[in-house]
Structures are given as structure tokens and as C-alpha cells.
Amino acid sequence: MGNAATIAVNSKAWFLGNQGAADKASERGVKPWLLHVLTPEVPYEIPDLRITPYGLSRIDETEGGRIENLGLYIEIGDMKVGYLGDSVIRGPFEQLDMDVLIVPVGGDGVFQVKDAVSLCIDAKPRIGIPMRWSSEEDPKKFTKYVVQFGKGTIPVVMEPDQVLQVYWAAGNEFRWELN
């Protein structure tokens, strides 16, 4: 959850998540009218935004077994973003049409770098963003192998406080800018 509950409380922003995450957010002070429980494969829609959650999981490194969570397929206008959260499972993401794919790398209960790169190769997003890495080498390896094998996927490693702007210029030219 990170600081999502604090952000929701301080800015009165919606909190979207599975039932377990919503329960934790409620315990951390998120008001009931800001909580929106997502159900796997049931789209959540508001004008110009559609979020389809998919049930995924990661490995529980301390107790073994799996921890259930959600991956999100986000459609904002013509832009399509895949966010795998803390996952070690691809789910349907290798088959979805995505402009941007945000994938955890580095093991520790989530994808090994080679598996995250493999997902980018199979899914063919325009941009692949590694997240939740466990060593400084993980995003470097991800970048190296996506450039080498990704055939059209651009790896983008983001630093804290950076913003990635992606958009369609003239309706058919994909553009991006990292600030």
C-alpha cells in the first residue's frame, strides 16, 4: 500500500483496490466514500477512464505461499497502460495491447529481471518501465535486455519525482517525454 492511504486521506482522493487493501486503507483513516473495491475482471469506469483489474499474486518470501493482489489494465482515452503491481504472474498481460507496461523486477517475490524482459518481449508495449527492483543492477539489466531483445519496446527507468508524459500526437503518433 505504501503511502496510498495517506494520500487519499490528505487529498480526499479515491482509493481503489481489492477488499484486503480497502480494509487496510479504512484502518488507516480513508473515509468509506473514498474507497472503491475492485473485483477481478470487472471494469471500473468513469468518463474517459476504464480500469480493468486482474487477479495476480506474488510470493510471500517470509511465510511461503502467495499474496493475492491486482494488476490493472488502464485505458485513458486511446492510451493503454498495464500495471502489474507486486506480481510474479503475467495473467492476461502478455496478450493485452499496451502502450506502457509497468512491471516489477528483481525477484524478492516478484519477477526476475529475465521474466520481466520476457513479458515485454511477448506483450510488445511501446514503453517498458521497471519498478520495485531490489538492487541497482536490476533496472540496468532490464534496460540492457529490453534494448537488445525488445524489438520496439523502449525501456524507461524512472527516478523519484520524475514524470513520464505519454500521448498520441495527431491521433496516430505515439510520443513520450520524461521530466
Helix content: 10-25%
User: What would you give as the CATH superfamily of the largest domain?
Assistant: Ribonuclease Z/Hydroxyacylglutathione hydrolase-like
Q: What would you call the shape?
A: globular
Tell me the number of helical segments per DSSP (H or I, 4 or more residues long).
4
Beta-strand percentage range:
25-35%
Tell me the count of domains.
2
At the third CATH level, what is the topology name of the largest domain?
Metallo-beta-lactamase, Chain A
Major sheet, described briefly?
7 strands, mixed
How do the strands line up in the largest sheet? 3-4-5-6-7-8-9
The CATH architecture name of the largest domain reads 4-Layer Sandwich
The strand count comes to 11
For this structure, what is the CATH class of the largest domain? Alpha Beta
Brief rundown of the structure:
With 179 residues, the protein is an alpha/beta fold.
Q: Can you describe what's shown?
A:
- The chain is α/β, with parallel strands linked by helices and 179 residues long.
- The chain has two domains: 1-37, no CATH class; 43-178, 4-Layer Sandwich (Metallo-beta-lactamase, Chain A), CATH 3.60.15.10.
- 23% of the residues lie in helices and 34% in strands.
- It has helices at residues 4-11, 19-27, 113-123, 137-149; strands at 15-17, 35-37, 44-46, 49-59, 66-76, 79-83, 100-104, 127-131, 154-155, 164-169, 173-178.
- A seven-stranded mixed β-sheet has the order 3-4-5-6-7-8-9.
- The longest helix has 13 residues, at 137-149.
- It starts with a helix and ends with a strand.
